[in-house]
Amino acid sequence: MPARSKLRPLQSPASRIRSRPDVVEVGGVLALAGRTEIPAEARIADLLFLADALDAADVQYLLVRDDAHRPILVVDETERLAVTRALVAACADEPFLSVALKRNLQPRDEVVLVADGDVAPARTDRLLSLYRPRVDAAGVLHAVPEDGVRFEFWVRQGAEVRVPAPNALTRRRFVTADLHPEDTERYGRTWSTIRDMFTDLVSDVTFPIDMVFSWVDGTDKEWQRARARRMASYVVGEGDDSEARYRQIDELRYALRSVNTYLPWIRNIYIATDSKAPAWLADHPRVRIVRSEEFFKDPSVLPTHNSQAVESQLHHIEGLSEHFIYSNDDMFIGRPLRQDAFFSPGGISRFLEADTRIGLGDNDPARSGFENSARVNRALLRERFGRVITRHLEHSAAPLRRSVIAEMEEVFEPEFTATAASPFRAKDNISVTNSLYHYYALLTGRSIQNRESTMLYVDTTTHKGLGLLKKLGKRRDVDFFCLNDGSFPEVAPDVRAKKVTAFLQHYFPLPAPWERTDGEAGAPAQAG
């Protein structure tokens, strides 16, 4: 008898994808390795891949958007078979997943690998999220349906179109005759869409928003000596002479990464500092270092070691947008946020109140500068408006308007002048960014409380605080978090530094475009 031929079994889609050198498997999920895109960039990369696949199969589609400007691909339900064939073929070697979404856009439980033969878990699913999981440089798996490309099948019944979920413009049902197609330029190509879908809406925040960080390199020995010499002749409040006021472990690098990753719409970033630029910061058109003499109204009061003095002068930074966000290097963005987390479409700023009350008593030299300034702010606002503020603000990035601060500088001219001239925090200083601006703007109709955003404050010098980091890194479920370096530590500085640095490297592994690579030579970024 002739020998039997040895047939090789067909390779399954999963094993074929798994064999790619740039694909890894994490917890049973196939993912692209070495992810370098921020979430918004990953979504666009997946969108363009899917659009190319539909184009290759001559499948007609529309591009629409949701209220957050996230793209949605739309195909007629009658094209489902053609869509399935096109995407299954295109994704034969790609780890694309598909999950059906509920009407509230939350993902259902079942997830399918498109390469296995279908574009949806069920043939009746009309609302999907398609995405390629990715693993970043820290080995963290990013496989979140909410970050995927929304894909919808629209149904035409007679003269009516039925849409499975709300978008930025249409109703769930509308008359076919009301659908007026037009083209739009997005993501480097031309798309078919619906008239006015990508026109600025009244709900859109369309004005530019910059960001300002104040920062000090507390490791600079020359700066430490100068500060110590000047402080010798001053009496400061509780905790204001602590090393925690200026100690740093490269938090600024990761704070800026959080902005690049989760606030990609920020126009420019200003770093207000009199320290040397960090060695990792390269010259970049979106990042500028500004020295105190560039924006202090009266440079003769310099130098200063008072963050409240610096904050009182930020509105004088040349080129800064009217609407801007102020932050410190220990404040981080925890997940993607839209502009309306900070400002209304009309420009009203939105601030986060803390649960902590300011408390009783007046300002006193024995109190910390933070506690004193809150009491000074309270007295000024009570005198002007007859209203009493009761709460501190959260330690988070705060939205501000230059014109409002300029107005306040005229209204409270003696207090602004005295604070700017204080080389260290003094008992009569104001705090413009926390909380004088926000309550003044509230009482004059230009700010409101933000009651939707979530915030976590972590004192990283305590055992409890360090214990929160693991949970935060796993859940990633807050909008803002602050990793504060407390003035009364329980944990040794080297232990704290090691654990906080490891956490930040894990949470924000993607270098920002203004960072030098490890082997890159050259001088740090310059001011100006």
UniProtKB/TrEMBL annotation:
Domain Stealth protein CR4 conserved region residues, every copy: 472-521
Listed GO molecular functions?
transferase activity, transferring phosphorus-containing groups
Keyword Transferase among record annotations? yes
Coiled coil feature spans: none
Q: Please state every residue range assigned to the domain named Stealth protein CR2 conserved region.
A: 245-348
Question: Which GO biological process annotations does it have?
Answer: polysaccharide biosynthetic process
Q: Which UniProt keywords apply?
A: Exopolysaccharide synthesis, Transferase
Query: Which Pfam families does the UniProt record give?
Result: Stealth_CR1, Stealth_CR2, Stealth_CR3, Stealth_CR4
What are the residue boundaries of the Stealth protein CR1 conserved region domain, all occurrences included?
207-234
Which residue numbers delimit the Stealth protein CR3 conserved region domain? 395-441
Family to which the UniProt record says this protein belongs:
Belongs to the stealth family.
Q: What is this protein called?
A: Stealth-like protein
Please give the organism.
Amnibacterium kyonggiense
**Species lineage, top-down?**
Bacteria, Bacillati, Actinomycetota, Actinomycetes, Micrococcales
